Amino acid sequence: MIVDSHVHILPPSRTRGLVRWIHRIFPGHPSSEDMTADQVLEDLAACGVEKVFNFVFPLKEEETEPLNAFSREVASAYPDVTGFGSLHAKTPRKEEVTERCIAEYGLAGIKLHPYVQLFEAFSPTFEPMFSKLEELARPFVVHTGFDVFYRQTQDLDYLRGILEGHPGMPVVLVHSLFPRFTLAYELMSEYPQLYLDMTNSVSAMRWYRESPGKWTSHEEGRQIAENLDHFEPLLEEFSSRTMFGTDHPAGMGSPAQVYADLDWFGLPAATVEDLKGRTALDFLEKHCGGDGL
Ligand SMILES: [Zn+2]
Description:
The chain is α/β, with parallel strands linked by helices. It has helices spanning 12-25, 37-45, 64-77, 94-104, 114-117, 127-136, 147-150, 156-165, 181-190, 201-210, 218-237, 255-264, 269-287; strands at 2-7, 49-54, 81-83, 110-112, 140-143, 171-174, 194-197, 242-243.
């Protein structure tokens, strides 16, 4: 079964904004600004996707509650969608909001996109959320990497502290710290509660492999070269804790292109099966209260 571990079904105004943004980055990108949940899911179904993880992220505090309610609505309207909640750094009583998302709304965990939400996720501000997630044994899913593209950084020492201090909270590093695969490899070796989401990292690595000299940023090209040796070992050795998705409707191309990018590497069949769905199904079962969510 193919499980897309990274999709954004959002309210219409946010979908418009997201697709407008992706068009600025990739002119000619096939997504349209008026895409509905049905269309997003149809595009994915055409690639054989049977289940998806849906991520929302409030750009301002006031949006937190309506977006979490929206995530719940989508997940209840579409049984194959596993919804996640989100918080903003300014959200008061983070432990209560986290608990409501999971216990009341039936959402699987919390996803943060700090580079777009414009705050530091690896900070004491989110400790109440980490503690609640650990108590409930539910996942913290967080954007990591693509620092050059977003022109931002994260406190990765604090991330290590979170992994040390909250061993009962599953953590998913979305984009696998791209391109810090050496660090991702180290962390995956050390922390059994850690998972990776290879969304966009795979497409970016394909682009790099095809024309390393043409990489858009010299600095990032240098970082990729330094981490190259750990990319495939990371996928192959830790595939049982590595997921993969499209970021549809704002991925690095159509869903078909994104899956073609993964196939391009010619990885061992067992690795590909893990990335395309087996790990995500196992993750739902182990950490999200079962795959019926
Ligand atoms: Zn995304």
